[in-house]
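Hi support team,

I'm filing this because I wasn't sure whether my run with iron/sulfur cluster finished correctly. The job status page said complete, but I'd like someone to confirm that the output block is well-formed before I use it downstream. Pasting the exact inputs I used:
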Amino acid sequence: MSTRANAGGLVFENGKNVSVQSMYDHRVESDPDYVVGRLHELHAMGCDLFRFSYNSTQDREVFREICSRSPMPLVADIHFDYRLALDALDTGFSKIRINPGNIGPKWKTMEVVRKARDLDRCIRIGLNSGSLPRTGGNRVSVMVDTALEYLSWFESAGFRNTVVSLKSSDPEETFAACLEFAGKSSCPQHLGVTEGGGVISSCVRGTWTLGRLLSRGIGATIRYSINGPIEKEVQAGVELLRTLGLRRGGVRIVACPRCGRYSFDSEGFLASVEARLLQSQKDVTVAFMGCQVNGPGEAKNADLAVTGIGNAVFIYKKGELYRKIDRCDAQKAFWEAFEEI
Ligand code: SF4
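And here is everything the job wrote out:
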């Protein structure tokens, strides 16, 4: 049994270089330039691996172009039809995700496995508690046993470039399944609580579940499943890895919650600059503080801090006042200061 897998040069190993994954939320239609542009932005934010639904061969040529221009390895998500998996492997995806349980007879899955083996591609066995081949009994054990059985199929064909995911919309079920699987197999795991809901519920459920697994050295890739913008999924994944000390670099944003002393629209200012900050590779802390009275002191450890009162905006560098400007010039001054730190 292999403890490592790789897709397009990205190595998956539990507890090591944990990668952040997300997924496209539309069909790609016929606009590869737009999709490739999104991929570059998401990659700059810290996304390492990106998945697309591969629903039909109609989009094959668009996907071929996207695969050839993508800044990160791409994964094709396949359901039901093994021929789509074969097609995706020909199209240039580095990895495919299948659930053998919905592919049909075993021979269909094995055709996909042999092709992935011959082309040196990766496969994720993606199990979901809602679509298991057997019902009844302990769902966690059924998930784990099913994943081990599929793994043995793959290994019987000499294929070891495999990642496994055991997902449920129930955080405790997901946690228990991933933990039990890790006790029986060192195969790299992709972690996620599926169908997490909106931003807040997904982040809470995902962080509680994935954080406990990652802190035990379980998990090679992660995804937050958010009913919301893709960027939020990437931001949440990166933030979790940084919080656990599993990733370094990038802009660390801090902001006060605001209180009765608040005199500066720190929320609005942060919203206006956040997307660009999150794409920066600078290893710095930037603070957005709600008042001129306490903000500078509370943010004195930040590399850059911004606050204000009335029409005046104050920018601090390493705790020292750097510039006082009019509100309408604040964005320009902020970016100038950011470039200098
Ligand atoms: S920085 Fe000012 S507005 Fe923000 S929490 Fe502190 S005292 Fe309140």
